[in-house]
Structure formats: structure tokens, C-alpha cells
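Fig. S4 source data, part A: sequence.
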Amino acid sequence: MKDWEGAEKLVRKYIAEDTVCTEDNDIVFVAAEILYKANGNKKEEKRIKRAMKKYEEELEAYYMRIDDEDYDFDLMDDDLPFS
């Protein structure tokens, strides 16, 4: 519908200048990136992309730190609840 102003109001309601992209709001960041790309606001599009990139890097670093020993995958067939 190309209601850029209405869409920006919604984005600004949930994303301030200092809002960090997290698992709780990443979908809003995705929508904001699409909005800013569509309406040609390159400055905001880049800001949103940087925030999303930082979040992705933090997630990747977190999952890279998880050691396989943290998981108990050494179940024997006898330990399974079914045959």
C-alpha cells in the first residue's frame, strides 16, 4: 500500500536509535530493513543492517562456544524408551 509514513511510525515505535537487535525483536528489524530498502532511506537501511549483522555475529559466536560435551548424546540403545 506504500504507506511509508505509517510504516516508519510503527518501526520507530519498536526500534529507537539505540535499540539492539535481539531474538525478541529481530523480526521487526527484518521488516524495517525491507521498509527502508523500499522507500530508499539508505541511511536507516544501513543502520538496521549493521544492528542485524552484529546480532548474527553474536549468535554465531555463542553457538561456536558451545562444547559438544555440554550435550549428552552418548545414549545406549538400552537407554531408549522404545525398541
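Fig. S4 source data, part B ends here. The chain has a mean pLDDT of 85.
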